[in-house]
Sequence to fold (401 residues):
Amino acid sequence: MKMINDAKKPKREFSFFSPAILITFYTLFIFFLLNLAFVSGIGVSPAGKTINFQPNTNVELKFNIINSEQNTFEARLMVIGELAPIIFFEKDIVNVNASDYRTPFKTIIKFPSEMEPGIHKGMIEINPELPGVGDKMFAAYIAPQIPVSVRVPYPSKYADIRLAVLDVDEGTPVPIYIEFDNFGSEDILRAGAQVEVYSPEQELIATLSTPEVSIKKGSMKKAQAQPSPILRKGLYSAVVKAQYDNIDKVIRTNFTIKEPVVRIKKLLTKELAQNQINKVVFEAYNEWNTELAIGGFIEIDEKKSEMPVFELGMNEKKEITGFFDTTGLALGEYNMSIALVYAGQIKTDTFLVKISKKIKILEKPVGIWPLILVITIIIIVILVIVLLVIKKRKPARERNL
Fold:
């Protein structure tokens, strides 16, 4: 028997860049992009539903799949969230035709005899099944979802109190509303509130009050608190003292007007030396009403340098120093970006700077006033010495006489 030496057999190596692999990958990638565009054209109507709890009752909800791209496909329905055990579908799979802009489907909520008071939430998810190459091989990566909420009332009288503040331009009176959401099993005849607005230092800024309103069970009303205060951009806290049908409730919450803003007022470093680490100095100003911790980076021609974290107090203006290494950058003018990172946001300013071989440092000429001051001091010292000498000689002359 002739033995075959495995060591002499040529080994077939796998390569990701082989023509067959690349063609397959490219085909699947194009197919994925087409499917993604396909799914993005699917919508739902209405966008969500909120209903009141009805013990031992079946409630039917109607929705529509919006086929704006006019495709033909099947959509599989499913429920996620805490309402999944009580939400059912007339059909789990809905056939969508290219000729139909709207395709309806029904959802049935089977309420039990009781549920915990409060709001219970669930999601109806629509999963289009997209045909692949000879088979249904891809499911949708973007599945539209419809939020469904069930309101379960509390026994007797119960209201959920919320503060709503409209975002307006600085210097404009700020509309502040109190929302009374009746979660109880009875109507609320009279409800009102007083609102106290405080600065970050807990200084009382404004006191407001709402008119009295009545709220039917299962409904919500909001009342505007007056007078509307004028607030600068910043962070504030509020204490809401609400009353409804002889029931008192106090809530404490925070709100903001606009977003934190730190501005670079001035760039003090206009020229950098080539092939060395340079100081970059700029003037920053905090327009927010609380202290902010700020980080950031300096960038020139895709080369970045991180800045140390610094802090700016309310209304504080300060010179900030960063460092940038110009090694590898050619001489000339560049756009330098300074990005400041604070309060979950990034703000970037761009400045024109010049990279030179050597920065000329001009020495400040000595002014004439320091010279005059030195001469004056010398003259005074000489006069004092002369006076002392004269005083010593005068008694000696008197004794000789």
